[in-house]
Amino acid sequence: MPELPEVETIRRGIEPFIVNNRVCRVLLRTPKLRWPVPADLDRRLGGQVVQRVERRAKYLLLRTAVGTLLIHLGMSGYLRTLQGDQPPGKHDHADILFDDGFCLRLNDARRFGALLWLEGDPQRHPLLAGLGPEPLSAELSGEVLFKKGRGRRLAVKSFIMDSRIVVGVGNIYASEALFVAGIDPSRAAGRISRQRYRRLAAAIREVLQRAIAAGGTTLRDFSDQQGRPGYFAQQLQVYGRAGEACTVCGQPIVKIILGQRASYFCSRCQN
DNA sequence: CTTTACGCCTGACGGC
DNA sequence: TGCCGTCAGGCGTAAA
């Protein structure tokens, strides 16, 4: 389930292989993922040179002179990199083949992902236009969170998972960041001080940054295959650890449901 | 305006 | 062994 760190790791992994590389063709095996995949994608992307590989939130953007291929991996999606042709396996929905024999293959068992063709400025596309700040940029600050949180009764965990507030904070890292910041996930977003939001903004950045650093080592080799993203589970402090001792105080980690999502926290360290 | 519920989809897992 | 129900989860959309 790729969260932002996984997507960024994938971006960095594929970038050197496809920037300045020309797409020779696109092979679609599945007509619809989350939305219908443009049937004429081969005609649009074929022959185009990938100029840049960007990421906005959890969307990957492969930019060409005439348009942008948007890729979202949903929950179960991953990209593999292949050389030459290899027989497709189960849930291998699309291949992007390049002139030099390089192939980017999209696999997504649950098909919650997306493959779309965007023309014009991608930032104007409805999927991207309303997004909040990137968590790793200076645009995210405690002040921004504090201001957006005014008057809201929503649980802060659900609040930071709202992509209009800040992008790329998925279920796992939301719990982790709130633990680092010492904030109870169920606390209303409007009832958190500026000071504590500053700590939260820093915690979000730190947790994501650390996961990217870990991904850079575990997913380094993209030349073979397996851009299969992991959870970086080895360094999670609360997520999925209900009943286990808090790494700081030893209290058992508690699991609660917020906004229909599993949430984990330490009732002693977080308030 | 905010908040909540649901649907999309498959694989893993537990109970029988 | 197999069948069935439940859960997981990003994110858009509908409904309250």
Question: Secondary structure elements and their pairing?
Answer:
Layout: H1 4-18, E1 23-28, H2 41-45, E2 52-56, E3 59-63, E4 68-72, E5 77-83, E6 92-98, E7 102-108, E8 114-118, H3 126-129, H4 142-149, H5 156-160, H6 171-181, H7 194-218, E9 254-258, E10 261-265
Helix pairs in contact: 1-7, 4-7, 6-7
The structure holds a DNA duplex (16 and 16 nucleotides).
Tell me what you see in this structure:
Strand 9 (254-258) and strand 10 form a beta hairpin. The chain is α+β, with helices and mostly antiparallel strands. The model is unreliable at 216-231 (pLDDT under 50). The chain folds into 2 domains: 4-129, Alpha-Beta Barrel (N-terminal domain of MutM-like DNA repair proteins); 142-265, Orthogonal Bundle (Helicase, Ruva Protein, domain 3), CATH 1.10.8. Helix content is 27%, strand content 21%. The chain binds a DNA duplex (16 and 16 nucleotides) through residues 1-3, 34, 58, 72-76, 91, 108-113, 127, 151-154, 158, 161, 163, 170-171, 259-262.
